[in-house]
Structure formats: structure tokens, C-alpha cells
Amino acid sequence: MTTSAQALSAADLPGLDCGICGFRRCDEFAARLATEPALIQRCIHLTDHVLPSTGSSDGLSATPHGCATCSESAATSAPFSATAALPWRDSLDREFEFYLEHFPEDPGPREIIIAHNPILCREMDIQRGDIIIGRPLGMSCGCPITHCGVVMESDQRTGVMVWCVTGPLAPREQGFKDIGYYIAEGYEGLITQTRVEPKIGMRYYFQPSMCMLQWRHSGLVNYLNRTPAGLQVRLEGLWIG
Amino acid sequence: MRCYFDNSATTPLDPRVREAMLPYLENLFGNPSSLHADGLVARRGMEEARRDVATLLGAEPDEVIFTASGTEAINLALLGVIGETKAADRHVITSAIEHPAVLMTCRAMEKRGTTVTRLPVGSDGIVEPAALATSLRPNTRLVSIMAANNVVGAIQPIEELARITRAHGALFHCDAVQAIGKIPLDMRSLPVDLLSLSAHKLYGPKGVGALYVRRGVRLAPLIHGGGQERGVRSATENVAGICGLGRAAAIARAEMADDAARLVGMRDRLLAGITEAVPGVYLFGHPYRRLPGHLCLGLAGHEGEAIRLLLLFDDAGFSLSSGSACGSSHIAEPSAVLLAMGFDPVRARGSLRITLGRFTTDAEVDRFIEIFPRIVGSLTATNLQHYQQRRQQ
Fold first, then answer.
1. Over the range B311-343, which residues count as b (16 or more CB within 10 Å of their CB) and which as e?
2. How far apart are CA A208 and CA A101, in angstroms?
3. Helix (H) or strand (E) holding B260
4. Percent helix, percent strand, percent coil in chain A, to nearest 5
5. Which residues in chain A touch residue B328, judged by CB atoms under 8 angstroms apart?
6. Which residue in B106, B243, B296, B326 is the catalytic one?
7. Residue B210: which of A112, B201, A152 has the closest Cα?
8. ipTM above 0.90?
9. Phi, psi at residue A136, to the nearest 5°?
10. Contact status of A140 with chain B (Cβ, < 8 Å)
């Protein structure tokens, strides 16, 4: 393999005329190499396929070190390996007590939320069936990811809404209302796998199974009901981690 | 007017392909297995398409098996080889960043007793040939590596990987669904035994794919029936779709270099333009060792807003692709690839994929460069605008 920037003629190039270097033919590329030898990096047939350790020549490429939105680089830069996904450990290798699943009849995980400006619920006339998007922020359960979902209940007097997080397809198909930032006040769902016997009034670490970061959460159990589908639970006072 | 920048998801039908398909959707409806004239004319069209696909690959026509999709071609390659293999020899090697069509088939094979090794990739998304060399076992029967990745566009060193595999005596399958017609893949010089492709990534119709099977490679069929496609894939052929694939292959062969050079120029111009306007933009994967029209980008500090960005671009008329989200039913892709490349979950889910294609114009790229900083800047302003609009109503 050749990675040097010495003068190359068309005869040194592979002659495939593949165009991947950005030139239609190898001879056109060779002509340009005479004045800009560094362009040789663009020939994938000649150059080493390994990304230079210093990053790309233009410094644009991402390197997988650290989380862009927080400083816990050592903890978050490791690849998400199969071992990190073992039961009772989250993606940051922290222990938890149970998995929280959504109700089978719901389109996604059910959350009790309130917009940071609760009057938005009335001003945007948010009603059952509306598609809304927003990002959890603040002292309760902040998360770096924008969430999308469908409203199940809305109380325009208090601003409290119950929604199911469904992912981005629904807002794409049906349009949406953007509430900006919101606070997650509570989760409702089913406990189907647990290694403790949850009790009302106790705080637990748990893993919402649809959390795309697979980070554990903690919350206080303030409602329990045994059903054929599993242990129905409401968790309030939520925190991530 | 909409700008379609998601050509890795699917491509628009080339009007010339549509033209080639129309007769077989109208008058030439015969079953290619029939002996009468109507059947013969359908068979002739289908065999011409087989020749066109074979020519694109540097293969012989009888080495091309038509299927109903790229996914089916991949399933046939993997399960077909393992079905012909003794239980003790069932070790398969693949990579951690394959398409679900490969990864989920491997998982299904694992449940039936096949041992699967998944090779890691570097932060550029490239499979290291040395890693393959050290993972081969005496009972390795099959190695399956994609030619180019669907998420970051990374082009794999297929020739090196296939040579190592052949020297070991195993078979090499290449998922070329993303790469076909974009980079040269010549079966006369590549020691590849099986290669999968799909028409709809090649400006052809959906619902048709093909598997290249090198002469001498035996496959157990997945679909049993009337013995079409040399008994490997029974079912009456999708003649119109196959003729579309044939035409798409012929066009790709003639125009590949022109398309590639043009797309690389547009891709680099787009990246330079938006990077200059928004300094936080970074690129996933290798800057050059990637598919011609392919960009996978992150936006520093806004990784969690990929969905919002996608929606804003969509409203502005641009079709892009993005990472997945909480509650989304497609949680495996594309983030699994970026996770395997070593990126943390926030970055891995926060990517924007921009894939240009044959019908992308310079004017569309200009429009995107112009609108990009405005849309990124509006991430924080949208709520206020919405609020003010409501107040005015």
C-alpha cells in the first residue's frame, strides 16, 4: 500500500476509473496530484484504510471519546457492549432493581408531565390525542433527548398532562405541538421482571425498558396493583441515575 | 419543492427503469416458465436482465439468482450455506455493524446451534482484516461482511477480507445492498462467493433483489416449489421488477463513475458549506473511505435534538434520516452501528444521515447549505415563535 505523497502518474493509479476520489478518471486525478499530492488520500484503493490517529486532515471527524453533552467521558465513551446489557445493570454499569414496561394497550411508556410553563397546556389547547414533542429538563429527570408522544389526558386547569412516548413517526405523520421543555412528574407502567418485592413508599432504582440511553432511573412507588399482566406501578419523584 | 436527501433508505425510480418495466406490467404478462410465446417473451426479458446484472458484477448470468428483496438474498446466502453444512462445521463470522438482515439472521442461526463471531470495528467503521484472520477457526464455514455500511457509508476492504477467507477455505458473502452501482465490485477480481443486492437502492423498483452465487457454491433453498431460479428460489418470477433491476444495473454500469465523481463533489461541498456556517458539525466515519453521496453528521451540543432537527428539516422540505428515539419501534438502527464504533449512546443516537443520489442537484445542495444554519439556530427559538403565533391568533 502506498500512502506517500510522492508524485504519482496515471500508471501508478489503479485504473478503475471509479470516481470515488471525486474525479471521473484516474488520469484526471493524476493530473491534479501533480500539484496537490495530498489528494492521494482520496484514492481508497491505494491508501491505508485505517483512519489516521490524529483524525481526518480537515479535523472534522468525530472520535468516540466522551459524551458531547456531559463531562463523564470516562464512563460514557466505552462501547455499549453485550456485557453492559446484562440484567440488573444499565448502560453505565449501574445496578437497578426492576424493569419498567409500558402497558400493553398503550402505544408507548406512560408519563405524567408538566410543561415548564404550564399555561402552554391551555394556550396551545392541548387535548387527548394531540401529538406533542419536548425535552425533559430540570430537577426532575432531565434527559438530553427530545421526546415525542401522544397525549392521553390533559388538565388545562393545572397544566398536568399524561402522555405516551411513541417515537418520531407519529409527529411526522400527523403534525405536532412543541411544548419546549417539560418536567417528568411520574411514570406509570408494569413491573414484569424484578429482583425485589416493591413496596409503596419505597424508592427504587429501575430501568425503563424503552429508555434509548438505557440509563437507570430512580423513583418513589406510590401506587401498586397486581394485575394478570404484571405489577402495575406509579413512580413519582423521578431522577435519572 | 421537496429535496430528497435519504438515498440510502431508498432511491427514486429512474424514468428509464420505469420505461423498461412498463411493457411487462401491460402486455407482456406471460409466466416465464410457460412454453408458449407469451411465456417466452417474458423469459427473454428476464434473461436479458440477468445478463445485465451479471455484467455489472463481472459474473456469468447463471450465477445470478433473483429474489424478492435484498433481505431475502442475504437470508438465502447465510441460511443456504449453513443448510448445506454439517452441524460441527457451523461457525460463521460477521461484523458488529452489519445490517439487521445479516445480524438477525445470524441470531436465528445461533438459536439453531450455529456459532457466530461478530468482529469489532474501529471508530471509522472499518473491519480490520487482521481481526478476521485471528477469528477464523478450523470449522469456519462462512464469513459475511458488508461492502459499505448503511449508517456511516464506510467502505470495507472487501478484497483483503475475502482473500483471507478464501485462503482459509471458507466462503465469503458480501452484503452489497448499499454499495452496488456506487463502487466497483468485479467478481472476476474479487474472491467473493456470494453477494446480495437490492433494486430499490439502485434507482430500481422495490420488491426485487438478487444473489450472486459463484459457480460451485451449493445453497439449500429457503423457498420450495416449482423449481424456478435453478431450484434455489422457487416462485413465479416478478418479471417487471426483474426487468427493472436489469435496466437499473445497466445504467449503473454505464454511469457509475460519472455519478460517483459528481456526488463526491457535491458531498464535499455540502460538508464544507455547513461546517463553515456551523462550527459544531462533526463527521462520523472516514472522510474519504465512504460511499460517494454519503454523510453521517453530529452537531456538538445538540445530539439529543436529532429528532427535532429532522422534523424541522422535514418542514423545510428536506428528507433526511436520523438516529432513533425513546419509544421508537426501530431502536436497533442506526445507533447500533455507532455504538459498535465506540460512540457513547448520546452521540450514537444523535446522528443525522444525509445521502445524496443521482437526482440530487447542485441547487438543492446550495439550498441546504443556506438553510442549515437557520434551522440549527432555530432549535432554541421555535418555541418562542410558536408561543407568539398563538398569542397573535
1. bbbeebebbbbbbbbbbbeebeebbbbbbbbbb
2. 6
3. helix B239-277
4. 15, 35, 55
5. 166-169, 212
6. B326
7. B201
8. no
9. -65, 130
10. no
**pTM for the structure as a whole:** 0.80
Count of A-B CB contacts under 8 Å: 204
Strand partners, B188: none
Where residue A176 falls among pLDDT bands split at 50, 70, 90? confident
Cα–Cα separations (whole angstroms), residue A77 to A187, B278, B297, B348 = 29, 24, 18, 11
Place of cell 402552554: A120
Residue A53, C-alpha cell as written in the block: 490517529
Closest CA to B318 of B352, B288, B271, B284: B352
* Spatial CB neighbours of B31, under 8 Å, sequence gap ≥ 6: B38, B39, B42, B236
Question: Nine-digit cell at A235?
Answer: 413512580
The span from the CA of B173 to the CA of B182, in Å, is 18
Of A11-15, A63-67, B101-105, B348-352, least confident by mean pLDDT is A63-67
Task: List the single residue in A22, A60, A168 with the smallest CB-CB distance to B328.
Answer: A168
Residue B314 is nearest to which of A172, A177, A213, comparing CB atoms? Answer: A172
Q: What is the identity of the amino acid at B142?
A: L
* Nine-digit cell string for B42: 417474458
**For B175-222, how does the pLDDT look when each residue is reduced to its tens digit (9 = 90+)?**
999 999 999 999 999 999 999 999 999 999 999 999 999 999 999 999
Find out whether B348 and B359 touch, Cβ atoms under 8 Å: no
Residue of B311, B335, B347 lying closest to A62 (CB–CB): B347
How long is chain A?
Answer: 241
Strand boundaries in chain A, DSSP class E: 98-101, 110-115, 131-136, 147-154, 160-165, 177-194, 203-208, 217-227, 230-240
- Interchain contact B305–A (C-beta under 8 A): yes
Cell of B18: 420505469
Task: Kindly state whether A148 is in contact with chain B, defined as any CB-CB distance less than 8 angstroms.
Answer: yes
